[in-house]
From TrEMBL:
Keywords: Membrane, Transmembrane, Transmembrane helix. The chain crosses the membrane at residues 12-35. It comes from Paremcibacter congregatus. This is DUF2149 domain-containing protein. InterPro entries: DUF2149. It holds the Pfam family DUF2149.
Length: 114
């Protein structure tokens, strides 16, 4: 029995086989993690991921087919370009009604009367 133990210790091919097994397990784990990633480049699904929602460093990643776009928050509330297009009201039954502004496009809305 002692001779069998010495042969395994002296044979370097056995340790190489063990290393190959370890690398195969690591490779399988990496492939599984890539497959479960929502922004998997091999899937044709459209996905939107929001990182750190509501925080100063919020980031939105949108994947449409093979195109990936990233939007980063400036941290300012209400920042951006555009004009007021109307007002939305929530009714008691939960529905929302949108009332468009009467001002022409590009014109500033009239100030509210006090």
């Amino acid at each position: 029995m002692r001779l069998l133990d010495e042969d395994e210790a002296a044979n370097p091919a056995l340790s190489v086989v063990n290393l190959i097994d370890v690398f195969l397990v690591l490779l399988a784990a990496l492939l599984i993690s890539i497959a479960q990633n929502p922004i998997n480049p091999f899937l044709g699904n459209d996905v939107m991921v929001i990182k750190n929602p509501g925080q100063q460093d919020m980031e939105i990643v949108i994947k449409k087919g093979e195109k990936i776009e990233t939007y980063k928050s400036t941290g300012e509330i209400g920042a951006g370009e555009g004009v007021k297009a109307g007002v939305a009201y929530r009714m008691p039954d939960g529905s929302i009604i949108y009332v468009p502004d009467d001002t022409p496009e590009g014109a500033a809305p009239a100030p509210a009367a006090n």
